[in-house]
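[Discussion] Sanity-checking designs against the backbone

I'm trying to build intuition for which residues belong where. Below is a structure token string of 310 positions. I'd appreciate it if someone posts a full sequence so I can compare it with mine line by line.
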């Protein structure tokens, strides 16, 4: 298999991993474990893995200096701790399809954050894209449909997911200098450790008091999936693929995630796709496409389309 095919295979596999999570997580919460308990298991598992691997592959590499230390803490707060708490809280309350569509707002947040923090230029198409994407997201958040009885708190859940996409978009801008300066495992071990400090106080009780003896085999497998595939393997594959893949190629696979999430959710009977959601999705995708039109001579943030991490 050529290296190019490996890149495509890695990115497609990551897209499938993220897409499947929207439906599989609904099996686990809230019946067997609350959202914060799941977050705790994910983050603690990732901390142990990345810290151990970092010890072997980059033992001398350390984040130094006040500026980089503060930046790494902010990345851990936005990209891991707050991000994961918001995501699973929102997914617990809303439908898989709504959550997956709202996640595509993240690239728009990246553009706004890049303009503020990195002084990147915002052109008229980007302004229009932000407006169109925001309109699609607002329509999705405020809409009520036949599933209102299933998800009575969907509006609050959608707001949590939008907030999750916002803080993750900010994280992508903040983490760029660290990823370029330090070994990937050095950065990942640090930000997951900070994320654990934020999230574990909220979720340790749910994680410890869950009735594990009552878990059927498929629930154990889905929890294992969220720790091993969703958290660890997805990060590893993305970091490898980013060495060879262009931002445009990564963007295609980001937009593929909600498409796969819809297919998986419908096949598993976790959600139903409606014409209303199709229109909202079209607005969001159009907004993201307009925002992705980079101004000439602009410095492009390579991590703007790195990943949509749950």
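Best answer:
Here's mine. Compare freely.
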């Amino acid at each position: 298999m050529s290296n190019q095919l490996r890149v495509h295979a890695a990115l497609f596999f990551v897209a499938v991993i993220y897409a499947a999570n929207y439906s599989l997580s609904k099996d686990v919460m809230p019946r067997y474990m609350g959202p914060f308990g799941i977050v705790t298991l994910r983050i603690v598992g990732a901390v142990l893995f990345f810290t151990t691997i970092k010890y072997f592959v980059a033992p001398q590499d350390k984040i130094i200096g006040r500026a980089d230390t503060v930046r790494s803490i902010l990345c851990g707060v936005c990209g891991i701790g707050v991000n994961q708490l918001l995501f699973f809280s929102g997914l617990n309350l809303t439908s898989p399809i709504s959550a997956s569509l709202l996640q595509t707002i993240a690239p728009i947040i990246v553009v706004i954050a890049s303009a503020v923090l990195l002084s990147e230029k915002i052109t008229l198409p980007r302004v229009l894209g932000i407006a169109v994407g925001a309109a699609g997201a607002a329509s999705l958040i405020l809409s009520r449909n036949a599933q209102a009885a299933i998800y009575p708190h969907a509006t609050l859940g959608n707001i949590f997911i939008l907030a999750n996409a916002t803080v993750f978009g900010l994280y992508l801008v903040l983490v760029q200098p660290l990823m370029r300066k330090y070994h990937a495992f050095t950065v990942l071990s640090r930000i997951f450790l900070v994320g654990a400090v934020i999230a574990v106080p909220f979720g340790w009780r749910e994680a410890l008091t869950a009735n594990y003896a009552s878990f059927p085999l498929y629930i154990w497998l889905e929890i294992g999936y969220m720790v091993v595939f969703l958290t660890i393997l997805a990060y590893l594959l993305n970091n490898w693929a980013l060495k060879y893949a262009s931002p445009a190629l990564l963007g295609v696979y980001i937009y593929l995630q909600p498409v796969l999430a819809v297919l998986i959710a419908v096949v598993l009977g976790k959600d139903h796709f409606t014409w209303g959601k199709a229109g909202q999705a079209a607005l969001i995708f159009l907004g993201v496409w307009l925002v992705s039109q980079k101004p000439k001579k602009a410095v492009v943030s390579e991590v703007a389309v790195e990943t949509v991490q749950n």
